[in-house]
Amino acid sequence: MTTYFQNSTTGEVSELPIATGQITYTISLLPGTYIAYAWLLDFSFGGLYSNAVPCGLKASCDDHAARPFTVQVGQITKEIDVCDWYIGPFVIPYPPGKEPTTTVGTITGTISYPGGNPPALKVVAFNVKTMYWYWTGTVLGDTYFSLADLPPGTYHVVAYADNYQAGGYADGDHNLIDIVVKAGQTANIEINDWEGNFPANPVK
Q1: Contacts 24+ apart (CB under 8 A), 127-135
Q2: SS3 assignment, position 43
Q3: What is the Cα–Cα distance from 95 to 39, expressed in whole angstroms?
Q4: Residues 69-102: pLDDT tens digits?
């Protein structure tokens, strides 16, 4: 992954590569106030040094905003732990040149519903690796959906009706099919299996 240290005044960003298994780091920065965040190399998963980190990342620590810290001349700033990986990717800043438009993809597709007239649905994409989920809504009769701004990764897609019925993009044995999302590309699927045992609807 790469860790980014962004000067809150100038916006200038310093990058620090992190090797697999590495758990500590040291970086030299000019004096100033900074925020720190990290992304996997494909921008599929990110974390940051947030207000929840000094709180211990407990369930009661619900403030996941980036926590500024100060670097002073001749002093070592310690315990800037970039370890809050519990929030969605669009809360975490992107470094210059890596804005979401250049790092996300889209899933689009059709909805085949028994009887031919789909009810209003919530279509959810579950990231298989990170467990983040993203959703869009449709209205009565819609047979098309689009899920944009998805970080690259592998997804499962399920549509949920208000009557607790669920339909998925699945194979003949009702297993959800992996959908690979790549930056700048669109994956096309068909939601056509309304008999599988799919994950519960996460959209409240």
Answers
A1: 127/44, 127/151, 127/153, 127/154, 127/155, 128/153, 128/154, 128/155, 128/156, 128/178, 129/44, 129/45, 129/153, 129/154, 130/44, 130/45, 132/88, 132/89, 133/202, 135/202, 135/203
A2: coil
A3: 9
A4: 999 999 999 999 999 988 766 678 888 887 666 6
- Is the distance from CB of 16 to CB of 24 less than 8 angstroms? no
Tracing tokens 């620590």 back to the chain, one arrives at 61
Look at the block and give the residue holding tokens 């315990």: 79
Question: Do strands 144-150 and 105-111 pair parallel, antiparallel, or not at all (unpaired)?
Answer: antiparallel
Question: Which residue, 128, 177, 137, is CA-closest to 161?
Answer: 137
Domain ranges of the chain: 1-102, 104-191
Question: What is the torsion angle, in degrees rounded to the nearest 10, for the CA atoms of residue 138, residue 143, residue 149 and residue 155?
Answer: 110
pLDDT per residue over 145-168, tens digit each? 999 989 888 999 999 999 889 999
Architecture, CATH, for domain 104-191: Sandwich (2.60)
Residue 41: Cβ-neighbour burial (10 angstroms; 0-12, 13-18, 19+): exposed
User: Residue 2 burial (CB < 10 Å; 0-12/13-18/19+)?
Assistant: middle
Which among 106, 59, 107, 51 has a CA at the least distance from the CA of 84? 51
With beta carbons less than 8 A apart as the criterion, state whether 120 and 147 touch: no
Judge residue 109's burial from the number of C-beta atoms within 10 Å of its C-beta, 0-12 exposed, 13-18 middle, 19 or more buried. buried
How many angstroms separate the CA atoms of 128 and 132, rounded?
A: 8
